[in-house]
């Protein structure tokens, strides 16, 4: 087993951080490897930072404001030193006792990521209902091959995050992002505990942000290297539609209809111009993506190993 970095975003969890640290420390001490505990205070307002400063051993990162769980997770990843990253929520619903099994599953199956699967969730019904709906949409748009992408409890190989920056609400879709890059994703059922202190941070606003990010990831997965295929095709289809609406305008013209009294001519012109704009936007986007991947050695692929047999 390799050394482990525990990475935990924290926001207004003053009542939970002491117990969380004790449980992580108890599990980490049984792993038999070096470890570090990184806690990111994401602009807490309830005295969480004061509690965090009293924890030893620990690395405490304090954000200037509440930037969100994804940004806090990204900051922890960039600050981490060890090859294995273990991410947990700070609300004590994730059980640190599951970590050894997750790491074992990762090593035995040569996975790059192992995600926890909360098969028996201890959340309110409304939250579970919204989560199931989001999981269905996620499976349709960006199938990452796991049941519970929203579970923060995961083990990653740190190499997964080379040249990767997280933003928005993308922490829910990290397995999908990594799968796009060719990393191997695994899953293992984990214990999920009811929240006993503090307040849930999930709301409809975060759900809507997550949906927007999901659509962005879908587009990036399918068309990041060939945006012209999407935008150019959409432009051509819209122009074809404008051609048929133009035929309707001509039909009414030859029937003696006053063109100022029908919407077909203006509608045909408008849809044609929209189609042209989509086509041009696709062409420009394609050139920009070629420029993006052509600089600083960026590639659309990820190399796992290079073996030289002499």
TrEMBL record:
Lineage: superkingdom: Bacteria
Gene Ontology MF terms: glycosyltransferase activity
UniProt-listed Pfam families: Glycos_transf_2 (PF00535)
GO cellular component, as recorded: plasma membrane
CDD domains linked: DPM1_like_bac
Keywords for this protein: Cell membrane, Glycosyltransferase, Lipopolysaccharide biosynthesis, Membrane, Transferase, Transmembrane, Transmembrane helix
Domain Glycosyltransferase 2-like per the UniProt entry, residue ranges: 5-163
Gene3D superfamilies xrefs: Spore Coat Polysaccharide Biosynthesis Protein SpsA, Chain A (3.90.550.10)
Stretches that traverse the bilayer: 228-250, 262-284
GO biological process: lipopolysaccharide biosynthetic process
Name of the protein in its database record: Glycosyltransferase family 2 protein
């Amino acid at each position: 087993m390799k050394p482990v970095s525990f990475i935990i975003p924290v926001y207004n969890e003053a009542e939970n951080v002491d117990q969380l640290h004790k449980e992580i420390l108890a599990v980490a001490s049984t792993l038999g490897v070096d470890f570090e505990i990184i806690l990111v205070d994401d602009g807490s307002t309830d005295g969480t930072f004061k509690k965090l400063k009293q924890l030893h051993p620990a690395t405490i990162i304090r954000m200037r404001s509440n930037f969100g769980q994804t940004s806090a997770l990204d900051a922890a990843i960039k600050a981490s030193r060890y090859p294995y990253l273990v991410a947990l929520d700070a609300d004590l619903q994730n059980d640190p006792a599951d970590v050894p099994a997750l790491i074992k599953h990762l090593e035995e199956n040569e996975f790059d990521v192992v995600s926890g699967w909360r098969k028996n969730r201890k959340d309110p019904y409304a939250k579970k209902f919204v989560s199931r709906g989001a999981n269905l949409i996620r499976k349709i748009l960006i199938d990452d091959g796991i049941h519970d992408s929203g579970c923060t409890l995961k083990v990653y190989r740190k190499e997964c995050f080379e040249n990767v920056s997280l933003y928005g609400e993308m922490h829910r879709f990290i397995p999908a992002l990594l799968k796009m890059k060719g990393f191997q994703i695994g899953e293992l059922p984990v214990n999920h505990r009811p929240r006993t202190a503090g307040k849930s941070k999930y709301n409809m606003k975060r759900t809507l942000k997550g949906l927007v990010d999901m659509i962005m990831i879908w587009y990036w997965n399918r068309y990041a290297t060939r945006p012209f295929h999407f935008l150019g095709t959409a432009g051509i289809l819209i122009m074809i539609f404008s051609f048929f609406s133009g035929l309707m305008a001509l039909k009414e013209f030859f029937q003696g209809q006053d063109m100022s009294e029908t919407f077909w001519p203006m509608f045909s012109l408008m849809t044609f111009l929209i189609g042209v704009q989509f086509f041009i936007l696709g062409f420009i986007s394609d050139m920009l993506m070629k420029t993006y991947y052509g600089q600083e050695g960026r590639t659309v692929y990820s190399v796992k190993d290079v073996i030289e047999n002499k």
